[in-house]
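Anyone? Bumping this.
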Amino acid sequence: MSTTLAILWKDLVTEWRSRDRVIAMLLFSLLVVVIFHFALPVGTRSGIQENAAGLLWVAYVFAANIGLNRSFALELENDALSLLALAPGERGWIFLGKALANLILIGLVEAAAGFAFAVAFDIDLLKVALPLAGVVLLGTFGLCCAGTLFSAMSVRTRLREVLLPILLLPALFPVLAGAVAATRDLIVAGEASFEAIQLLLVIDGVYLVVSFLGFEYILDE
Amino acid sequence: MSSQASMSLSALELRAARMRSWLTLPLLVFLALYAWSVVNAPIDNVQGIIQKILYVHPPLAYGAYLGFVITAIAGGIYLWKSREDMDRLAIAGTEVGVIFCTLMLITGPIWARGTWGKWWSWDPRLTVTLLLWFIYLAYMLLRSFSGNSTRTARFAAVYGIVGIVLIPLNYYIIEIFDKRSMHPENLERGSLGDGMGMPFLLGNLALFFVFAYLVLLRWEVEGLRTVASEDEAERLAANREVA
């Protein structure tokens, strides 16, 4: 567990000093919001509310992809990744530290992008801010578990930035299905359905266990 | 197979290679019977000739799923026991599974256009199968972008297991959120028209033999390729020593 906290602290301090990942993700998600404005046909207010959840999660996933790509690319410098593998204890704890750092950084970007989205499309997200934050947290946790595992794989391949979304997106279907349904319920009806939350909890649990155990075989010297 | 090759292949791989040669005759017999029965099967009154896709589409689906299950199980054994022959079996399972899945995704829309009136619908089984196809194509890309090493084998094994874990989850999601399904639930006894049961059964048997033959063949080729690259590495090392 101390390994997890050490990795989490290291990643957050590194990001605090450079701030490059958060800024890149934030700018990218804002650009996606602007592109949505131009790409979408003019619709009714209820139509926008119905589709807002899906659009918001598309922006989140694309932005997260950038951050996840950088998560392990940083460790390639000075061959830090090989040294990480030498850390005592199970490698799953290293995964957890990385995943939690990604969760915090991506979560910050999602909060800012959500605010921009609400303003740009005139959707009142404030009245459901707290449950929405919970749903986004659950969805992002699943995204970060799978994303951190696949990022550790793709970083050791040729064409690493290209490979991560190809590995990640098909595996994200369960996370997106639950997160979009819950977010849509919140925006349209004011409360999330039990099935969607249940699904998010199940998939988060599955991805946490599979990634924690799988990371043992992904990280090597 | 040369004696030199058999030194590096596992006993299981050698047995599989022998089994493949035994499979050739039943494969040819069943393929001939299958072709004959499909040609002679009655033409459906409602759907017409396009209904004959029934004799190839479901067996392709079984082959695809079986291939992906083989990938995950072989990948799991590889991680557990570090058996390289299991990694090579995982490659065979994926490649043959992806071929079967691709053919299923081609034959399905052709049949759908003729019966449902549109090429594609986001039917639960279609969606899950499409996602699986993407996952195992990504698996193949992961292998080709990572080079040929034990690291690649480990990455692929973990990814193959994630892929199979997603099957029940995806079905669960579709069950919750989208109950509309255009596929029949299960083929019950007698649900096929007169004269259609036999070609359907033969289709399943023949394509199972095709699947098994291709998996065993691909497994053997991967084994021989490994042996050849080991031989090449040894030869280069020997040349360097002489120099």
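Late reply, but here is one note on the structure posted above: The radius of gyration of chain A is 18 Å.
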